[in-house]
Structure formats: C-alpha cells, structure tokens
C-alpha cells in the first residue's frame, strides 16, 4: 500500500494512493502517525480499501503533498553507510554503525521550498532510503525480527550544512543536520510488500545534472541490522523515522558546488516516488 498526506502544513489529509485514486482515510484516522501505525492501521486500511469503505478525495491532485508521516518522535540517521560515500568524505568504512539525530521538526513535504540557512556556505543534499517504524522495538532478539516492526519505507533528503556538521560541530553532527526543512520526506509511505527496499535504485540531480546513482544493496549495514542494532541502544517508537545513509555524489566530495539560492534538487527512489525542492535564501 501507498500512504500520503495532502493539504496545507498542519492540516494534511491522510489518504491511500490506489493507482490514480486517492482514498480518504479520515473514516479510519485523523492522522498518519505513530498511534495509527501502532493500532494495526496498515491492516485496517487494507481491509477498508478491499471493502470499498473509503471515499475518493476528489480534489487530491490540486493539494500540496506533505510528508507521508506526521512529525515523528525521533529521526535517527545512519552515517557513512555506503563505502564509496565514506571514501569521498575522507573516511574508512565504519566498523560500527554510526548514529546521529535530526530534529523531528526538520520533516517537511517532498516538494516544499527549502531555505539555505542564514550564514550557510556548505548546504549539501543526500538522497536516502527511510525506514518508518510501525511497532515499538526494544531489545529485538535478532535482525530477523526487524521486519515485523517496520511499517514501510520512504524517500528522504538528509540535508546537511557541512561546516556546522564537521568544522564547528564540537564533535557531534546534529548541529549541521537540523536546519529548518532539512528532511524533505515522501511523497509516499510504501509498505514492504510493494518495494524490495533491500535493493532499489536511488538517485539525485541538482539543476537537472546527475549527482548520485546507487542501489540500497550497497548499504554496509542493511535494513534489518540497522533496526536490530538500534533497538539494543534505544527504544524505537511507532512513527519514528530512520534514515539509512547516502551514496557517493554529494558536494562534500569536492566534485560539485554546494547548494545556493535558486538551485533545484530532485531525488528519486524506485517504487518510493520523486521529490523536487527549490532552494531560497533564508528570511531575514
């Protein structure tokens, strides 16, 4: 199944995307959030679609596309999770999973305008596969238990301000990861039966020029291992978002300029949809 949220920020309507139809989920839930997922929401939505119990949202194609999940309680991020990206960043592939966090309020719609933060000179793009947690996960016994705790997958842009992340970070990356709008997400939350998230192509473009082109099969730490390992150190709650890392082809490599006002970034993961963001100067 594909889920989306349509409408103005803070007033999004939850829908099921069924081919060309957008089915209104409000007979089941007011929001696509952790509470809905924890209450077996995916299965209930599937049953409602099969029974013809959800009305079409006729104005769907005229509405803004929001992030397909409401603000999560946490956004966890895995760093250096593609060997080639680690190399272009000047690092060896990690022996242990690298974890940092983004502020939950960075999550915005996939096509929303993004501001270059005030004072930023090194804003960078990162196409990533995102995992959305569907069931509370704590001390999972093995990686084989992970999929039962995953609601689905999303496309995300893990935007970074590299100077703040690395040069003036004080040792923690999150300072350069939590600028306003630094996590465009969506357009859809897609359940695992509709996408082979372990091996999908992910790509990015800046102003129409190719930047990243890889497959999730190249992840150093795979989906199941990420969820299992994180559950040993923290509690994953329904609705939480995990970003799994980005492949090579970012501005940090030195091969491309950093983002500036007027730039357009597009990102795509097969089966998970496409994003397009226009970048502007921060309001003064």
TrEMBL record:
Signal peptide: none annotated. Keywords: Hydrolase, Metal-binding. One of its GO terms (molecular function) is hydrolase activity. It comes from the Bacteria. Gene3D superfamilies: Fumarylacetoacetase-like, C-terminal domain. Residues 75-277 form the Fumarylacetoacetase-like C-terminal domain. PANTHER family: FUMARYLACETOACETATE HYDROLASE DOMAIN-CONTAINING PROTEIN 2A, FUMARYLACETOACETATE HYDROLASE DOMAIN-CONTAINING PROTEIN 2A-RELATED. Belongs to the FAH family. This is Fumarylacetoacetate hydrolase family protein. The lineage of its organism: Bacteria, Bacillati, Actinomycetota, Actinomycetes, Micrococcales.
């Amino acid at each position: 199944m594909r889920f989306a949220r349509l409408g103005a920020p803070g007033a999004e309507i939850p829908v099921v995307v069924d081919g060309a139809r957008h089915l209104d989920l409000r007979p089941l839930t007011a929001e696509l959030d952790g509470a809905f997922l924890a209450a077996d929401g995916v299965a209930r939505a599937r049953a409602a679609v099969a029974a013809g119990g959800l009305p079409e949202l006729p104005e769907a194609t005229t509405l803004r596309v929001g992030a397909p999940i409401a603000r999560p309680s946490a956004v966890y991020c895995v760093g250096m999770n593609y060997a080639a990206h680690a190399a272009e960043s000047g690092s060896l592939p990690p022996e242990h999973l690298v974890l940092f966090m983004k502020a939950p309020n960075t999550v915005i719609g996939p096509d929303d305008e993004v501001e270059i933060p005030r004072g930023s000179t090194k804003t960078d793009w990162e196409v990533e596969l995102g995992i959305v947690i569907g069931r509370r996960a704590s001390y999972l016994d093995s990686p084989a238990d992970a999929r039962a705790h995953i609601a689905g997958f999303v496309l995300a842009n893990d935007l970074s301000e590299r100077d703040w992340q690395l040069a003036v970070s004080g040792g923690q990356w999150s300072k350069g990861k939590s600028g306003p709008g630094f996590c465009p997400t969506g357009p859809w939350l897609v359940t695992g039966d509709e996408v082979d998230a372990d091996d999908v192509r992910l790509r990015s473009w800046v102003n129409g020029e190719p930047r990243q082109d890889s497959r999730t099969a190249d992840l150093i730490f795979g989906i199941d291992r990420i969820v299992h390992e994180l559950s040993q150190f923290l509690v994953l709650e329904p609705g939480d978002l995990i970003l799994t890392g980005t492949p090579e082809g970012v501005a940090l490599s030195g091969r491309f300029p950093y983002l500036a006002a007027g730039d357009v970034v597009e990102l795509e993961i097969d089966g998970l949809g496409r994003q397009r963001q226009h970048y502007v100067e921060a309001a003064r």
